[in-house]
Automatic annotation (TrEMBL):
Signal sequence range: none
InterPro entries, sorted: ALAD, ALAD_AS, Aldolase_TIM
SMART domains tied to this protein: ALAD
Organism: Deinococcus aerophilus
Name of the protein described by the UniProt record: Delta-aminolevulinic acid dehydratase
EC number: 4.2.1.24
Catalytic activity: 2 5-aminolevulinate = porphobilinogen + 2 H2O + H(+)
Subunit-structure text: Homooctamer.
Family per similarity comment: Belongs to the ALAD family.
Pathway it works in: Porphyrin-containing compound metabolism; protoporphyrin-IX biosynthesis; coproporphyrinogen-III from 5-aminolevulinate: step 1/4
Length: 348
């Protein structure tokens, strides 16, 4: 007898009935760039994405919530940068003020604070620099890991004090989760979870983000602290295990599309919630191809996001969030329109 898998693909209803993977706006986390200026500033390398004033960030967050997106993650662009990234942990920093404003306007929305220093340092690295004895040129400088832990802990506490629901350390400093967890607990923020960028690669896909945040390193690169793309699964598991042991409440893989195998490996080894970051370069590639007429943007985006869910992501940080939520709502409306009327409705 011939096996006929096509039987279950014949109609939209049959395909929906047999799907293993769901995708909804509830799975999305929407990133918002917040700057000190009063006006919106479009980001040329990320069509459709802008830097927003605090007022604009509140409206962006409102739009997300109205579309069923329950969470946003905030990235700050200060008007002043220095060697220590002091704007990151200032009580009146741009993210602290934006967090207060969003929570005041939308108390039911989950606000996640990206916890790093790269947007705030004048050299673009994720912590203060220190010299490397015996080295010269670009290799003469590195990020001072343990000094960075002190500043990241200060940043996390100031963000929690401002009302952030989740702290998301992204600097890839050894011991950052433990330092932040200890600082939050000491400041009576035991209830605030840590979303760890546990597995974060030194990726070419971050280019548009660095354009948006003004965080391109002025000396050296981040390869000494972000992960090698060819590092393999063992390194990813080690990084995730260390963060889990230090108190991470969720784990993240960044970027997403080129590392779906890593996402799957973490899903198989950890029972913590898992986040995929659909990063700026992945967003820009789809936008560029769609604008050139090479790809169907809607279908491509939803397929990519479904792939991340299939690989094991419980949540997805994505710049496509608003569009994807609208498309999914349209799909629901379309399916409702195609569904046969119940007998009582038909006779009405």
């Amino acid at each position: 007898m011939l096996d006929r898998p096509r039987r279950l693909r014949r109609t939209p209803a049959l395909r929906a009935l047999t799907r293993e993977v769901s995708l909804s706006p509830a799975h999305f986390i929407y990133p918002i760039f917040v700057h000190e200026l009063p006006d919106e500033a479009p980001i040329s390398s990320m069509p459709g994405i802008s830097r927003h004033s605090i007022t604009g960030a509140v409206e962006q967050a409102r739009s997300a919530l109205q579309l069923g997106i329950p969470s946003v993650i905030l990235f700050g662009i200060p008007d002043h940068k220095d060697a220590l990234g002091s704007g990151a942990y200032a009580e009146d920093g741009v993210i602290q003020r934006a967090t207060r404003a969003i929570k005041a306007a939308l108390p039911g929305l989950t606000v996640i604070a990206d916890t790093c220093l790269c947007e705030y340092t004048d050299h673009g690295h994720c912590g203060p620099l220190c010299g490397v004895p015996g080295q010269s040129g670009a290799e003469a400088w590195t990020v001072d890991n343990d000094r960075s832990l002190e500043l990241l802990a200060l940043t996390a506490v100031s963000q929690a004090r401002a009302g952030a629901d989740v702290i998301a350390p992204s600097a890839m400093m050894d011991g950052q989760v433990g330092a932040i967890r200890a600082a939050l607990d000491a400041a009576d923020f035991t209830h605030v979870p840590v979303m760890s960028y546990a597995v974060k690669y030194a990726s070419a896909y971050y280019g548009p983000f660095r354009d948006a945040a003004g965080s391109t390193p002025s000396v050296g690169n981040r390869a000494t602290y972000q992960m090698d793309p060819a590092g393999g699964h063992r390194e990813a598991l080690r990084e995730a295990r260390l963060d889990a042991e230090q108190g991470a409440d969720t784990l993240m893989v960044k970027p997403a599309l080129a590392y779906l195998d890593v996402l799957r490996v973490l899903r198989d080894h950890f029972d913590l919630p898992l986040v995929a970051y659909n990063v700026s370069g992945e967003y820009a590639l789809v936008k560029a191809a769609a604008q050139l007429g090479f790809m169907d943007e809607r279908r491509t985006v939803l397929e990519n996001l479904t792939g991340m869910r299939r690989a094991g992501a419980d949540a997805i940080i994505t710049y496509h969030a608003l569009d994807a939520a609208r498309w999914l709502q349209e799909d629901v409306l379309r399916e409702d329109a195609l569904r046969p009327l119940a007998p009582a409705q038909a006779g009405a």
